[in-house]
Amino acid sequence: MKQVRDATSVIPAPIAPSAVTDALLSIGINPGSVVLVHSDAIVAAQFPAMRNEQRLDLLIEAIEAAIGREGTLVMPAFSYSFTKGEPFDICNTPSVVGMVSERFRTRPGVRRTPDPIFSFACRGRRAQELCEIPVKECFGAESVFAALHRLNAYIICLGCSLSRATFVHYVETAHGVDYRSQKVFSGIVISPNGQTAEYSVVYNVRDLTRRSDADLRRLQKRLADEGKSRTTEVGRSRIMAVTAQDFFDTAWKMLDEDPVSLIAEGVHS
């Protein structure tokens, strides 16, 4: 006779938002930290039953509890409509990189950087500084990515893999990889006060004739093997943190060793 499994025995218990705060603290995040967070809503889905918006708010608040009032929370708020000729409205163009980032973008006190393609939503002590960086080049030496490098921000993957870490394109640009090239995009940017202006920004686009999509599995393993990343579990999700400096240095060395080590072309079957 076939055994019938008790369905209740396989339903995981909900987790408290404080578990996310505790997990972040356990992997080195401190009050005052600058954190660039890539997050999957699956983490918030593990909270007790409530409206999705409430769960997302609690997740954001749990992250902010770890960095405190002196910390700075940064999340991607990327939107690619500017590359298709549409205006970029800093206050109203939605983020297209996940529910958590879009919820954070619309919360009170959150500012947004003016890059019309790779903008970030920011709140905290460094938010104004990051949002005042002039728009010139998405991944260049004067970009928000470069500022996060100088600040040695923590890059955090909350419920997702390192593949979400767009910081890698800043490393590739600095290193001068041959599978990316500069392309200028121009269009209209609408400021928070409603003023419109023509902007041009340089986007280091990938070569679509090659398997140039990012594959960071080797980088993720290297960071772990060298003890430069720290991970922990929260419920059914994993959290990983690495400093921008360790990410940059390790990725740079890998590109020195193998110019295609960070893309799918470099994966050997």
Short summary:
This protein has 269 residues and is an alpha/beta fold. Helices cover 29% and strands 22% of the residues. The chain is globular, with a radius of gyration of 19 Å.
Radius of gyration from the CA trace? 19 Å
Spatial strand sequence of the major β-sheet: 4-5-2-1-6-10-9
Number of helices: 8
Q: Major β-sheet, in short?
A: 7 strands, mixed
The amount of beta strand, in percent, is 15-25%
User: What is the first-to-last residue Cα distance?
Assistant: 44 Å
Can you write the helix and strand succession as a string? HEHEEHEEHHEHEEHEEH
Say how many strands there are: 10
User: Ranges with pLDDT <50 over ≥5 residues?
Assistant: 1-5
What proportion of the residues is helical, as a percent range?
Answer: 25-40%
Q: Mean pLDDT score, rounded? A: 93
Helix/strand structural class? alpha/beta
Helix and strand arrangement:
Layout: H1 17-26, E1 34-39, H2 52-67, E2 72-76, E3 88-89, H3 99-105, E4 111-112, E5 120-124, H4 127-131, H5 144-150, E6 154-158, H6 167-175, E7 180-190, E8 196-206, H7 217-225, E9 229-234, E10 237-243, H8 244-257
Parallel strand pairs: 1-2, 1-6, 3-7
Antiparallel strand pairs: 2-5, 4-5, 6-10, 7-8, 9-10
Features:
269 residues; seven-stranded mixed β-sheet; 10 strands; 29% helix; alpha/beta; three-stranded mixed β-sheet; globular; 8 helices
Polypeptide structure, described:
The protein is α/β, with parallel strands linked by helices. The protein has helices spanning 17-26, 52-67, 99-105, 127-131, 144-150, 167-175, 217-225, 244-257; strands at residues 34-39, 72-76, 88-89, 111-112, 120-124, 154-158, 180-190, 196-206, 229-234, 237-243. The protein is globular and about 50 Å long.
